[in-house]
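Replying to the earlier thread about multi-chain prediction with a worked example.

Input:
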Amino acid sequence: DIRLTQSPSTLSASVGDRLTITCRASQNINTWLAWYQQKRGKAPKLLIYKASNLQSGVPSRFSGSGSGTEFTLTISSLQPDDFATYYCQQYNGDWTFGQGTRVEIK
Amino acid sequence: QVQLVESGGAVVQPGKSLRLSCAASAFNFGTYTMHWVRQSPGKGLDWVASVSYDGTITFYGDSVKGRFTISRDNSRNTLFLHMTRLRLEDTSLYYCAREGYGTHLRTFEMWGQGTMVTVSS
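Result:
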């Protein structure tokens, strides 16, 4: 099975900060990686697909990059609505998720 | 509106069975691959199973293989998850999710609100 490791697990930040979350895969997954945002009590929402493609309707402050085994999700200027948990997901083989990164208010 | 609505969650004893449903509305259900994903309380996401658009191809996560069965009834726009030999560790919120197509193939572009399954003696 392909394992995904996200870092950090928790991130304290302020509105306006630039944030980067890293996701590392246990083997090469090319660019078959997605990012999801999950707010408390809600279902996950697709943000980024194929490592760097922004899902329709997602603000442009979100961006993704990477290929192979290392990937990043960047939020260029954190907004109040962005405090949530973020998950990476690989879909090179079966589907697996990272353990999540919680973005909290500093 | 376009939505997925899960139902069927309950409190059940270990070893028992339960069937979850996911009703789709306002989109052409029979053309999409569908998935079940679960989330233990306070934990991360765990893919459970998938079924092709026509129900002929299924895949399962290792933790549920041989115990859970995913199926669909396209005439009723409904996805199912039949869970047997339930274990304490199956306690989770179960989401159904619609897979994308084209450039979004194999991503989960739409989710329901989830239904809670609690396995407890």
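The radius of gyration of chain B is 14 Å.

Feel free to reuse this layout for your own posts.
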